[in-house]
Design a protein that fits this description.
Helices cover about 30% and strands about 30% of the residues. The chain is of the alpha/beta class.
Amino acid sequence: MLIIFPTKKEAKASIPNITLKGWELGILRGEYRGYDVIVTGVSKTNAAFASAIAIDRLKPQKALLAGICGSYKGSGYSPGDLLCLERDYFVDEGMMLPDGIRLIGEEGFPVTEGNCAEFRPWPKLPRTEGNTVSFLSSFDYLASAYRKKTGASVESMEGASVGLAAQRFGVECFHVRAVSNYCGERESQQWDIKKAFSALSSFFQSSL
């Protein structure tokens, strides 16, 4: 199993005693209970690059992406909730039209089939779907547009990219996220990163 985190902070919050050192091409690498751990860096671009390099070099049979996410208002998920994603969309690979988002896949240029990456469900965790974005939904109109387009419940910046890399290499991939905040207007995001980190830490202690 290859364990993947977007940031060093998420890795250390989830696995408090982990040691991370520079590895290939600036990627941080560590070890947890015999599993390789890497840190990709934030964004779709870094996630695609680092996860592809790690999968190619380390040749895992399975991969797990873990980190924090924002939930869309009305999704039913709150800070501290731990979820597994079964599907993650490249929701902002497209254009904004007066009636909403149109994906480039709908113009005949899909990033991948269905403009999403699919993941294996993690046992006993609630299942949902996510949006992977470069342009964060820091106001309600955009959050609503993203959610309306795909029906996703949560938003992150790396999920679909890691899923796509795993898919291309034929590696079974899981995606676990802890909600840290709500999407939308910044003054009402209600961040509680401590709850999110606590949920991730409990998950790693009990599940791996």
